[in-house]
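Exercise: predict the fold of this chain.
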Amino acid sequence: MEQFLEKEDYGNDEKQKIDVDSGKDFNEYKNKFLRIKADFENYKKRVEKEREELANYIKREIFKSILPIIDDIEKCMKHNSDEYQSFREGIELIYKKIENMLKVNGLKKIPSKGEKFDHNFHEAIMVKPVYQEELDDVILDVVQTGYTINNILLRPARVIVGRYDEKSKSDLTSG
């Protein structure tokens, strides 16, 4: 006994009869189902990736807006005055709490002072002559701390770099 189902073709108002016993129609629908399922899985993965990228973008923008505040706090902490010692300790406590919160969320300081200059993470704002060859291309001072978030550069460190000058060294020893 043959069984038939009615199938609606959505592009067409006609109804077609499908032979249920025929494996051809079954395999055709099975393949369509598997393709649609795969497309949906790819869609879910793409949406999840886009959501993560958006969250990371928002986090980067928020951290960029916080960095000038951190810079100001660091400048404030550099001033040593016995007169304002308790105030300074309070600022340091706030700074440490902010620093920990940012660290937990993936923000890291770029190691700089005493390190080799790396144009991927450092911006040289000044070059100073040095008279020791081992200090060539080494960061002598940090003007502004650089940061990464989840290994993506947020802001390069602004630094002063040493440049070995053989001529100046010979002038120094001969004079």
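Check your answer against the key: Helices lie at 23-78, 85-104, 166-174.
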